[in-house]
């Protein structure tokens, strides 16, 4: 193994785990926002989803 491949192997696994955890969190919050019976819970889930999916504007 070259030094570059060792570095990539060491960083790609944690990045992949983080991506899976983030995707799972977004999925659970989106399902809560869509399926919750209590309106306040739906509203809170929508607010949390907006925070998780916040996009940066092009001008910044």
Write the layout of secondary structure elements.
Elements: H1 3-35, H2 39-52
Helix pairs in contact: 1-2
Task: Name some characteristics of this structure.
mainly alpha, 60 residues
Describe the protein's architecture and organization:
- The chain is mainly alpha-helical and 60 residues long.
- The chain has a domain at 22-51.
- Helix content is 78%, strand content 0%.
- It has helices spanning 3-35, 39-52.
- The mean pLDDT is 81.
Overall 3D shape: elongated
Strand content: under 5%
Structural class: mainly alpha
Continuous helix count: 2
Short description:
With 60 residues, this protein is an all-alpha fold. The protein has two helices and no strands.
